[in-house]
UniProtKB/TrEMBL annotation, chains A, B:
Keywords: Aminoacyl-tRNA synthetase, ATP-binding, Ligase, Nucleotide-binding
Protein name: proline--tRNA ligase
GO cellular component, one term: chloroplast stroma
Source organism per UniProt: Panicum virgatum (Blackwell switchgrass)
Pfam families per UniProt: HGTP_anticodon (PF03129), ProRS-C_1 (PF09180), tRNA-synt_2b (PF00587)
SMART domains for this protein: ProRS-C_1
Gene Ontology terms describing biological process: prolyl-tRNA aminoacylation
CDD domains on file: ProRS_anticodon_zinc, ProRS_core_arch_euk
Aminoacyl-transfer RNA synthetases class-II family profile domain mapped to chain residues: 87-335
InterPro entries: aa-tRNA-synt_IIb, aa-tRNA-synth_II, aa-tRNA-synth_II/BPL/LPL, Anticodon-bd, Anticodon-bd_dom_sf, Pro-tRNA-ligase_IIa, Pro-tRNA-ligase_IIa_arc-type, Pro-tRNA_ligase_II_C
Catalytic activity line of the entry: tRNA(Pro) + L-proline + ATP = L-prolyl-tRNA(Pro) + AMP + diphosphate
EC number: 6.1.1.15
A GO molecular-function annotation: proline-tRNA ligase activity
Length: 537, 537
C-alpha cells in the first residue's frame, strides 16, 4: 500500500515529459527569460515577452536538447528568480536568495577570519572619478548607468551608479591613510552594482547584480600580492568544499586582466555545457589607483609612498554556476553544504485514521534532525499529492527526501531518497527512526552526496579538457565544445586572433603547471606556461 | 605603581577638554560633517568643506554646548561614518557598519521566525510605476534620483532609483499571486534606497541609506492589519530589549501617514536633545497598491479579489538613534546586546620583564571570556599608551574595559570599568581571574549596563513629556524643547497650524491610552485619544 502511494511511476526518470508538468504562470516566466536572453531591446519592455512561449505545454526542456532553455526553465520552475520590469534586471526570489545567503554566510566568516571588516560606500560616484584611472574608464565607460536628475533638478555633474567601487574607495582611503600605522587597511562590502549589459542571462549577466567587493591597501607590493593570492585561495576552497565546483584557479592573460589591475587571478568553472564561467576574481592593483587618487602614506623611515592595493569579488553569478554545474533534467541539484533545505520530509497517508500516527512520526523525525543541526523541512500540506511534492522538491534540488507512510510507522523506519541518484538505486527502505541511527545515516548520506557531486564534476571537467600542441588541435577541441590546454607565449594579437576565429579566449594560466620549458603551440617559441582556452559565459 | 600607570588624571571626567584630543584628520572630517549638515549645495561639492573647522583644536564639542556638533564630532571620532564625495551621501565605516550588522542579525532572525523570506528586487523602477498610485507619486516625486542614460544612450523611459519598493513589488506580486493558496506572501529585502534630500545628517537623513523593507500580501484586511501590528511590535521589542531605547509605539495622524498607506504605525524615540526620531514604521496599505497594479487572487469561493498589503521598514537611521539616545561627552555609549565589542582588555606594564606575565594573563582572560560567548577584544599595541586606549575605547562606547597590570597578575585579579558610570564609581578592583567568577561577573555587569541604559532613557523620556490641556500649554512645552501629550480630535488644518506655529508635529497617537472620552485641547470637542506632539528629526 505504502509503495503504491509513493507513486513509483511518477518517480521514474524515464518519463520526464510527464513529470515536469508546470503551472502556466511559471512557464510564461521561463519563456520570457529565453525571450529576454536572446534580444536587446529598449530600456523597459516587459509585457510583450511575458506572454510568449505559451505553446511549451508544461515541460522543462531536457538539458541535452537545449542547455540554455533548460537553464531558464529550471530557474523559473524552481522559483529561483524572475525577471524585472526593466530589461536585463532580475528579481531574486526567496529560494534563489537563500542560496546566495548560504554563499554569504560562509564567505563572510572567512573574510573576517582573514582580517577584513565590512563597511559601506555610497553607490553614486562623481563621473570625474571614473576618468581618473585611464584603463578603468576605458573598460567601464561603455556600460555605465548615469543619474542626471536629482530632486527634480538637472545635476551639475553626472553621477555614475557604481559598476565597481575602486574609485570611490580610493577617494576615501586617501582621507583615512596617513601613516604605515594605518596599514594594512582591509575592508569588504556586500552591495549591488550596475553594468549596462546588452545581452543578459539570469544570475550570469544582469544589469544589476549583488556581490561582495573586497578592497585592501598595503605598504608593499609583496603584501598586496600575498593578499590577492590569499583571496583567490579563499574562493577556490569555497568552490570546492562548499559548492562542489572544481574550479581551476589561475592568472588572467594581459588581454583579460581587469581594467585597472596589474594582475587578475581567477577561478574558472566548467558548466554542464562545457562553457567556462569566470566564477570569482582577485586583482593585484599595484599602485594604479593610489597614483590616480594620491593615496599615500609615510613609511617607517619617514618616506612618502603610494599604497599597494588589491580588490576581489564574487557575485550572484555564482548561483548560476551552481545551477549549471550540478543540475539535471529533473531540475536543480544542490550540494548539501549550501542547500537552504538539506532534507525534505513528505508524510504519506491514505485513510483518515493513518494521518495522526504518520504526522506524529514525521514530527518526531523533524525534531531529531533539527536538533542535530540538519536543515530540514516538512511538507504536510493537503493541497498537493505526495507525487507532486516529490517532483517539486527534486526540481528544487533538495539533497535528501524522507518519506514516511503508515507501514514505515509500524516498522519504526523511514524511506530515504537521494536527489543525485535517480530511481530505485537512490532509495533506501527501512532506515531506522532511532535518533542516533537516523542522524548518523542522514549526516553520512549528506556527506556522500557532497563528495559525489564534486567527484562527478571533476570527472566531467577532466574528460573535457584537451591538451593541444598545435593551433589546429585547439580549433578542433573548441569546435567540439571542449577546453583546450596548451603551451602559450604568443602575442596579445595572436590571442585576439584565436578569439575571432574560434570564439575561445584564454580563461587562465592555471597555477598548476608542469615544470620545464615547452613549445608555444601557436608560434613554436619557448613557452613557460600552458594556458587554458575555452568559450565562456 | 599599577595605579599610577592607569593614569587616573586622564580618566577623570572633569577634564573633558584634555581627554578628547583627537588627530587632525578626524577633526577635519567632523568639521566637514557639520559643514555639510548646515547647507545644501550642488551635486558634488566635497573638497572645500573638508578643510574647514581646523580651529577646533582637538575637542569633541560637549553635548550640552551644541548637541548637533557633538553628534557629528562623535561620529567622526568614534570612526562610525564619513561623508561621501557626493553631497548628502555617507560612507559607513567598519565600526558603524558593525552596529548595523548587530541590528540586522537580530531582526533577520525575528523576520524569519515570523514567516518572512528574504529576496531581492531590482533598484531601477520604470518612472511610470511611481505614477500609478496617486498619493505615492505625490509623496515621493520631489525626492527622486533618475537614471536617464544607460550604456551610452539616452533611455526611452527614465528609471527611478528606488526610494522604496512598493510599486515594483506589486508589479511582481501580480505575476506570482493567482489563488488564495499563494497567500499570505511575506517577504523582506535588505537593500539600499535613494531619496534626494536637501538637508542631510549622517545616519539620520542621507541621500542613500540602507534598510530592510518588508512587503506582504494577504487575503483579508484583518490579516494585513494583524501583520502590520505584529511588525511594529517586533520593532518595539528590538528597540527596548536590544537597543535600550524606550520608544513609544503608536499610530500616525492622517497628515503624517506614509504616501500610499491607509494606516502607518510608528515607533517614536526621544533623543538626548529631546527631539523625536521616527525609528521604524509599519504600514497597512489596504488595497491601494493592489488596485493600482491589479494584484488579484481567487478566493476559496472562486471570487476574484484584490489582495490586502503591508510594508514595514527600519534603516541605518536607527544607528543615529542609538548614538543620540545613549552618548555622552566622552563619546558613544553602546548597549551591550548590540555592541560589536562588549569588553576591551587593556594590558598595562612598565618594565620590560613585566610584559610577558601581563600578556600571558591577558591571553588567558581573553580565552575565558571568548569561550563564554562574550564579544571581547585585546588591544596590546605598543604604539599607543594605556591612557590613549582608555579614551579611545570610551569614545567607541565599549560597555566594559578590563585592565590588567603587574599587580593584578600577582593578585590573580583584574580591574573592571563600566563605560556608563564615570570615574571611580564605575571601577571595580580585585575581580578574580578565576574563570567561572570572572565570566559571571562580566555577564552580570553587561546585564546591569543594558538595564541601566534603558532605565536612564525611560526616566529621561518620562520627565520630558508634558501632559497639556490647552494649546497654550502645548506651545510652552514645545518652546522648552519637550514633548506635549494631550487629547486631540481637531482637523488636519489645525494640525498643520500647530506645525507652522511651533514646528511640532503629531508624532503618534500612542497605543497606550487612558480609557474614556477626553476634551480636545485645541477645539474643546470630545476626543477619543491623546496625541504626542514634538519637534523631530
Amino acid at each position: 500500500m505504502a509503495s503504491l502511494l509513493r507513486l513509483p511511476s511518477l518517480l521514474s526518470p524515464s518519463k520526464p515529459l510527464l513529470r515536469r508538468r508546470l503551472p502556466a504562470a511559471r512557464l510564461a516566466a521561463a519563456a520570457a527569460y529565453r525571450g529576454q536572453a536572446s534580444e536587446a531591446v529598449g530600456a523597459a519592455a516587459p509585457a510583450a515577452a511575458e506572454t510568449r512561449g505559451g505553446d511549451r505545454e508544461g515541460q522543462v526542456t531536457p538539458r541535452s536538447v537545449d542547455f540554455n532553455a533548460w537553464y531558464t526553465d529550471v530557474i523559473a520552475a524552481a522559483e529561483l528568480a524572475d525577471y524585472g520590469p526593466v530589461r536585463g534586471t532580475m528579481v531574486i526570489r526567496p529560494y534563489g536568495y537563500a542560496i546566495w545567503e548560504a554563499i554569504q554566510d560562509y564567505l563572510n566568516v572567512k573574510f573576517k577570519e582573514t582580517g577584513h571588516s565590512n563597511m559601506y560606500f555610497p553607490q553614486f560616484i562623481p563621473y570625474s572619478f571614473i576618468e581618473k584611472e585611464a584603463s578603468h574608464v576605458e573598460g567601464f565607460s561603455p556600460e555605465l548607468a548615469l543619474v542626471t536628475i536629482g530632486g527634480g533638478k538637472e545635476l551639475e555633474e553626472k553621477l555614475v551608479v557604481r559598476p565597481t567601487s575602486e574609485t570611490i574607495v580610493n577617494h576615501m582611503f586617501t582621507k583615512w591613510i596617513q601613516s604605515y600605522r594605518d596599514l594594512p587597511l582591509m575592508i569588504n562590502q556586500w552591495a549591488n552594482v550596475t553594468r549596462w549589459e546588452m545581452r543578459t542571462k539570469p544570475f550570469i549577466r544582469t544589469l544589476e547584480f549583488l556581490w561582495q567587493e573586497g578592497h585592501t591597501a598595503h605598504a608593499t607590493l609583496e603584501e598586496a600580492e600575498k593578499e590577492a593570492m590569499q583571496m583567490i585561495d579563499v574562493y577556490t576552497k569555497f568552490a570546492y568544499e562548499q559548492a562542489a565546483i572544481p574550479v581551476i584557479p589561475g592568472r588572467k592573460s594581459r588581454v583579460e586582466t581587469f581594467a585597472g589591475a596589474n594582475r587578475t587571478y581567477t577561478i574558472e568553472a566548467m558548466m554542464g555545457d562545457k562553457k567556462a564561467l569566470q566564477a570569482g576574481t582577485s586583482h593585484n592593483l599595484g599602485q594604479n589607483f593610489s597614483r590616480a587618487f594620491g593615496t599615500q602614506f609615510m613609511d617607517e623611515n619617514g618616506q612618502i609612498e603610494h599604497v599597494w592595493q588589491t580588490s576581489w569579488a564574487i557575485s550572484t553569478r555564482f548561483v548560476g554556476g551552481i545551477i549549471m554545474t550540478h543540475g539535471d533534467d529533473a531540475g536543480l541539484m544542490l550540494p548539501p553544504r549550501i542547500a537552504p533545505i538539506q532534507v525534505i520530509v513528505v508524510p504519506i497517508w491514505k485513510k483518515g485514521d493513518e494521518k495522526a500516527t504518520v504526522l506524529e512520526a514525521v514530527d518526531s523525525v523533524l525534531k531529531i534532525l533539527k536538533e542535530a543541526g540538519i536543515r530540514v523541512k516538512v511538507d504536510d500540506s493537503e493541497l498537493r499529492t505526495p507525487g507532486w511534492k516529490f517532483n517539486h522538491y527534486e526540481m528544487k534540488g533538495i539533497p535528501i527526501r524522507i518519506e514516511i507512510g503508515p507501514r514505515d510507522v509500524t516498522n519504526k523506519s523511514v524511506v530515504v531518497s537521494r536527489r543525485d541518484v535517480p530511481g530505485k538505486q537512490g532509495k533506501e527502505f527501512g532506515v531506522s527512526m532511532d535518533p542516533s541511527i537516523l542522524v548518523n545515516h542522514i549526516k553520512g548520506r549528506l556527506e556522500d552526496i557532497q563528495a559525489s557531486l564534486l567527484h562527478k564534476a571533476i570527472t566531467f571537467r577532466d574528460s573535457n579538457i584537451i591538451d593541444v600542441s598545435s593551433y589546429g588541435e585547439l580549433k578542433e577541441a573548441i569546435a567540439e565544445g571542449k577546453w583546450a590546454r596548451g603551451p602559450w607565449s604568443a602575442s596579445d594579437a595572436d590571442e585576439l586572433k584565436v578569439k575571432e576565429e574560434t570564439s575561445a579566449t584564454i580563461r587562465c594560466y592555471p597555477f598548476e603547471q608542469l615544470e620545464g620549458t615547452k613549445k608555444c603551440f601557436m608560434t613554436g617559441n619557448p613557452a613557460e606556461e600552458v594556458a587554458i582556452f575555452a568559450k565562456s559565459y
